[in-house]
Amino acid sequence: MKTRQRTSLAHAATRVAGQAGGCPPWQGDLLAFTLLEVMIAAAIFFMAMFAMLKVLSTEMNAAFLLQRNYPTPVMAVSKLSLTNKLEEVPEMGDFGEIYPDYRYTLEPREVMTNGLFQVDVTVFHRDKVFSTMSVLLYRPDSAKRL
Asked: Is residue 123 part of a domain?
């Protein structure tokens, strides 16, 4: 009787280990991936790759923009941030020795009576319009328009 138990235990161990001809019954259909599983895995992989490529492309574009060597309208507007007063008087200027061929114009106008101004900035390069920008500035200490 003891030999019979030993034989059945040994037989069960070899069946589980897959040594006695064929696969164990619990592994039946798990030998390969189905076409649907492969397609889903490929779709997930390609979505992740395209997302990474988009991030890389955006970073490359940002690095390219940082390498530009010319003045921007923001440089001209930055001097207006030094005070809380603004008048509706057009102003012209240049960028000094750093950018000798560039100049700018600032044209502020009050759009609301509470001190909200729209400043139109134009940057010129050798008398041709190089870039433009409009910015809204809140300057409450400015003289009120009647």
From this structure: yes
